[in-house]
Input
Amino acid sequence: MKQILTRAAMVAAGLCVSAAALAKTEISFYFPVAVGGPITKIIDGYAAQFNKENPDYNVTPVYSGTYQETIVKVLTAHKAGKPPTSAILLSTDTFTLADEGAIAPIDDFVKTDADRAWLKSFFPAFLLNGQFDNKTWGVPFQRSTVVLYWNKELFKEAGLDPNKPPQTWAETISMGQKLTKKDASGKVTQWGIQVPSSGFPYWLFQGFSTQNGAILANAAGNAVKYDDPKVVSALQYWVDLSRKHGIHPPGVVEWGTTPRDFMERKAAMIWTTTGNLTNIRSNAKFDFGVAMLPAGERRGSPTGGGNFFIFKKATVAEQTGAYKFAQWLTQPERAAQWSIDTGYVAVSPAAYETPALKKYAADFPPALVARDQLPHAVAELSTHDNQRVTKALNDGLQAALTGAKTPEQAMKDAQTEANRLLRGYK
Output
């Protein structure tokens, strides 16, 4: 009898161990990727490594489409009472997510000196879009700025110094004129400069408006200045690149095809995200350079990209695991490798002091340009009801670029619509 009891006790103990082994806290991690590829392999690797090092947790990446598709999915799940535990979403979605009661402030999980040191370790420019009401709602993960890429071979062919990109708006025009080529019929075969105006026109435009000394929105996210004379003249400059100077494609320029146009030598200079750096480096068949955006009254670029958010309706255990995962993802060595693998800006100064990123930057100096531009960077346009307020500006920008409206009228109409949308948040 005693032997039977002992065996029963051993079986029971074994079952308890098995149950404990199985009782992992599940952490869903929504990540904005539309298709499979290198990025998904990297994220899958991160999840597997974290799970191995932290056996109490099981992070499961969910690849959820574009940023726009991802926020729709997570807010739908939130309203249905089944939100993800965590997600990478645009930093500009912070107001929307907080207004919906969807996310928990990161401050809720900061308990120790080490936690506080971690939160202070990020580049200040990258925290701007994740903070309001004296709270930090999300932390930087895949972040970027707009930068200028130029084809050094085409510069040389045009009689320009291949190592000197334009430093000012005036130089952009003069160099662009030398870099624009036409065939015998007068058709342009190579544009001097190309700035995309689909997808994220407001983001590219923030380069122009910031350089002209204008700030599009206040920090509280309840007022914009689309009709500021400096905003209007910045838009006029963008329109003039095409209509007056003939160095930029007319109408709306596609976001997605701009890097390809650059690599196919259809554009000698382009503005796009530093997140395209690895793509262009891997596929361009010519020597190219990367530079800060040219200055108007000043230098300037918006920051961009995604933050890591933790969802409010997740369990305490899930939130704790997600917070631990956020810290793990943003450690200097990992942030450095992410930057090397993708072209995004590493999110902390400490990442640039790691041996891996130091070596990479020594071999490929363009990797430092976006970091060096951060002192000139401003917060990306973000307000309450952000998607509709931003759409008002996007519609105005495209109306001006296509010639449907003057820049002044386009920005006046955008301001009227934004005022209507933001009235309830004053």
User: Anything to note?
Assistant: The first strand starts at residue 25 and ends at 31. Residues 2-22 form the longest helix (21 residues). The chain has two domains: 26-144+304-378, 145-302+383-425.
